[in-house]
Amino acid sequence: MGPVPIELVQEWDELEPDMRQAIEIKPELVYDYGRENVLPRIGFDPSHFTKRELRLMQSLSDRYKDWLLPSVCEIVSNFNNLLIGRAA
């Protein structure tokens, strides 16, 4: 799944009823990489977010929507290595 909080992994492995109602997780093969595609079962409710948060989420979505996980993981890894190098 990648570098994510343990709480997310635990939630992902065994979805609570409210999440099971809201999303469907389907395995998908992209080239030679297996991933889990999250499909909405209910509509998005923007009332939980500020206008700024909505704008930022849209910006991130637009920018990275076509990226594959290995690319994202490589960027995170390189960033973490940079931070570790600065701390040394």
Describe the structure.
The chain has 88 residues and is an alpha+beta fold. The chain has 2 domains: 1-43, no CATH class; 45-88. The protein contains 4 helices and 2 strands. The protein has a two-stranded antiparallel sheet. The longest helix is centred in the last third of the chain and has 19 residues, at 69-87.
Write the layout of secondary structure elements.
Elements: H1 6-13, H2 17-22, E1 23-30, E2 33-40, H3 51-64, H4 69-87
Antiparallel strand pairs: 1-2
Keywords:
2 domains, 53% helix, 88 residues, two-stranded antiparallel ribbon, alpha+beta, globular, 2 strands
- Portion of residues within helices: 40-55%
| Coarse shape | globular
Q: Please write the string of helix (H) and strand (E) elements.
A: HHEEHH
**Mean pLDDT rating:** 81
Tell me the number of helical segments per DSSP (H or I, 4 or more residues long): 4
How far apart are the first and last residues' alpha carbons, in Å?
Answer: 28 Å
Sheet with the most strands, sense and barrel status: 2 strands, antiparallel
Strand ordering within the main sheet: 1-2
Rg: 16 Å
Proportion in β-strands? 15-25%
How many distinct beta strands?
2
Uncertain runs with pLDDT below 50, 5 residues or more? none
Count of individual domains: 2
Structural class by sheet pairing and helices? alpha+beta
In short:
The chain is of the alpha+beta class and 88 residues long. It is 53% helix and 18% strand.
